[in-house]
Amino acid sequence: MRMDKLTHSLQAALGEAQSLAIGRDHPFIEPLHLLKAMMDPAGSGTRALLLAAGATVEPLQASVDNALGAMATVSGNEDVHVSQETQRLLNRADKLSQQAGDTYLSTDAILLAMLESKSTASLLSEAGVTAQTLRKAIESARGGEAVQSAESEETRQALEKYTVDLTERAAAGELDPVIGRDDEIRRTIQVLQRRSCKK
User: Fold this and answer.
1) Are residues 38 and 49 in the same domain?
2) Per-residue pLDDT tens over the stretch 121-143
């Protein structure tokens, strides 16, 4: 598999999975290492996808940690290889990615393939993730677009990362009512109109 055909997010996750395997004295990079690496960063796309798919993320993370803790270790081992299961996972994800019309392999394709991998499938299903709910979450996150560049995953999350969803906050009752603020609203509209006229 060509590394230049992986998104930056997936490349980072694979690097982190390797570090996890080395740090825990595991001889191989397993799908569990990769799942943990994909879930760990705050605001990661994988965590958001799992939540959108109805997963209970904290128990899943605990299950992954427990499974990693139960794996055999090799003391003093610094020569870590990709396991056969991880290689099969990457190949399956590559096939799923091509079927979706993607040019680059992304973390969401890996996550879909993990539903078929023997070491991760049961953990994901116990957490409430099904292929159907995950596919819906991926389609929603992608907005109908294919992964056509190595930066696709970063740009996809830019809105969630750098903006505030006022509609979501209003639905949750976190915004103050606008009643009685006519002057403030009128001034805001005037300022916005002036700025749009200058452009």
Assistant:
1) yes
2) 999 999 999 999 999 988 888 77
